[in-house]
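Quick one, T. Sequence first:
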Amino acid sequence: MTFNIETERETDGRWIAEVINMPGVLAYGATKDAANANAYALALRVIADGVETGKNPPKTI
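Structure tokens:
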């Protein structure tokens, strides 16, 4: 699964990564790669939560 993630370095040196198509899905990391990984993991958790609660059931073909 692929997400559009934008990263930016904060003034304190931390990195912040945001999944563009998922409002509120952003995460920090000590490195750019860590921030991206944390944002990716959070996006997957949000999707899984939506499936488990029935808000976003999987589409079947």
